[in-house]
Every structure is written in structure tokens, then in C-alpha cells.
Prior knowledge:
183 residues, lipopolysaccharide transport protein A fold, mainly beta, 2 domains
Amino acid sequence: MKTMFAWILALAATAAMAAEDDDGMAAAREALAKPADPPAKQAVALRDTKITADRMEYNYKESVAIMTDNVVVDDARFLLTADRLFVFMDGTNSLSQLVVMGRVAVSNENRRAFCDKAVYTRADKRLVMVGNAKLTNLDEAGKASTVAGDKITIWTDDRRMEVYPRPTVTLPADSSKDMKDLL
Length: 183
């Protein structure tokens, strides 16, 4: 979805440049503005997202779906499990916020995240994990780097993270080998 959004923005920017400037360079700018194709490794086959739970309620007035007990979200990009999931929709029935509570676990090909509660807000593309929050990233060699803290906030569009209070970072044993000249 993020890639599709980038393609739409690039297409709109290219069309706007071509419309306001006819100096013969529009085709060159179009080629430069076109984003590169994502690497094949990042390509994700589109398929339906399947959400299962022991129970579900939907409040039409509040536009919220509540799934409880043995919640599993199976998406092409990740697998999420938890005790409860609240899906908040906006006026157009689009996702506005997810609240996940109780034994939250999210994983994909190279990341694992665990916490007591997670809140994803679509408007600012921010994920906040609280309570025993831990995020593990596996590199190409399968070595794990971990960050943990009471609260981990991730801004997905900015590829930025904040961990507080009391952050703990654990790196693979050989990760400091390139810093030997500093000592």
C-alpha cells in the first residue's frame, strides 16, 4: 500500500510538472521523478487479510469492531496475535485506528515485536507499543538486534523510533568489531 501511494504521488507530481512547463524537458523530469522499482525481496503478493477470533462485536454507531479471545490477523505483510483487537473506522469505512491489547505479538520475515498494548494511528502512521515492549530485527545473516523499553513509538513513514524510559539495546556479539580503532 505504501508503494502504491508513492507511485500515485509520483504520477501526480509528474503530471503537474508537465502541465505547467512545456520547455521540452517534461519527459526527462518524468523519468527522474519515477521511483525505482522496489527490490524483488520486498515485493509482497497481495492477498486478503484474514482476521479470526473467538468472538466479534460491531458497534455501528461508533464504527468500531471488537474482536476478543484468540485474535489472529493474518496479512501478507505480517502475522499478529493478541487477546483483543479494536478496529476503529472513519466515516468512509476506512481504518482510522487499531488498538491491540493483551499478549500482543507481531512478526514478519525479519522482525518480531511483543508488548502488552499497541496502538496504530493511520493519520500519522504511528505505532505505539507499551508495557514490556520489545522489538527484534534479524539481519541477512540471521543475527538479532533488539530494543526494549516501557514504551516504543515508531513513525513508519519517517523510519524513526523513540524508546523511553529505560531503553535497552542488545546487539550481536560481533557488531562492535568495526569500532575497535576507537579504543
